Amino acid sequence: MAEFRRDPIDGKWVIIAPERKRMLVEFKPEPYPSSERRCPFCPGNESLTPPELFAFRPPTTKPNQPGWRVRVIPNREPILRTELELEKEGIGSYDRVSGIGAHEVIIETPEHNQTYSQLSEEHLKEIYLAWKERVLDLKNDARIKYVLIFKNYGLSAGAVMAHPHSQLIALPISPKQIIEELRGGEEYFRFKERCIFCDIVRQELETKERVVFENARFLLICPWAPIFPFELWAVPKEHLSVFEESDDELLAELAQVIKFGMSQLEKTLGSFHFNLVLHNLPFYLSSSPGFHWHIEIMPRLTRVAGFEYGSGFYVNPVPPEESARWLRKGEK
What we know:
alpha+beta
């Protein structure tokens, strides 16, 4: 029987409807549309991209040459640009802000066909270290309020390039989703004098119903009110609000839980499309008593249609407890 579930952090409602499992979509690998004869992200084609901003490479190699393991470049067709002036304007009831910011691509591996689950924990750690370095650099720009880091994999998840990569968009405005999470966390803290994320970690460790994996510093869970089937959250067990303050050990632990989660998703679902998003604290705050930075992984197994857009309610045909059981085993 269907039921409504409320996300305890941002307050959104989700309908868990197990009888609607026929809504699940099996995504088959599709060719990516491209006008390029050569992949610009592959080694040897560095001249086809803007000059790199950061890279992990042996000291014997030169920038913008082969030999890199992770490479960060400006997006060739950026949504936002750093060279603009920050201008804010009110036009009657309407607000407008100039499109300043940054749009960068993190090329995650030299291997064109390598999937996220195939990357080693050490390699994943370098990807997250590259994220950290770019966030710290962009934090020096007073015009930037938030850096959104995300990965799209598969056409249905919005990817247009096959080569493994994630993206970074620096914004002069904090995203609505983050504002709602912060507001929910602050309200919970004012009422209970406890952090909602810390309470979620404690409760999930007690019940184990939605826990998929844990290590010393992270919990990997199917959240209570997931928008998508098999949605996963990687949440620090400690009260940590700021991603860019993470040390190497913490990012190594993060790499371990993400590696496990992606491997189990692949074993359970086969080839699947997904979005991966880092939720972090905006730059105008140094800490928060009710917020943990965390990573959300959303397999794209259902389609969003008129009901979801019109009502704000998402329909998920797989209860998170069932998803967690399958993912712990790595099979349906």
